[in-house]
Input
Amino acid sequence: MFKTASKALTDYRDGIKTVLDQALAGIKQGKTPDELVQEVKLPTELANSPYLQEYYGSVAWAVRGIYADYVGWFDGNATSLYPLPPTERARKMLKLSRWASEDARSSQ
Output
């Protein structure tokens, strides 16, 4: 039983360390959370560990959490500062698409 507990804790420690190290390296390179989520992976031996299966959380969630903790929530996109409510955004997008199609027809 001690070996099982030791293996579980060792795998857990190594998994956390590798995800943190990869995420911080990507942050230092200026990568976005979406880029990091695609790149940060557990090594095969840890990904196959029965103690690190993604039943509740995931590596992607951990990467986003690390990014938010070290960099903050702002993703560099100014529209994220004061996002429109979904209905207002949809209304503006519809208006823009109508304007664009009218403009395209008038230029023909």
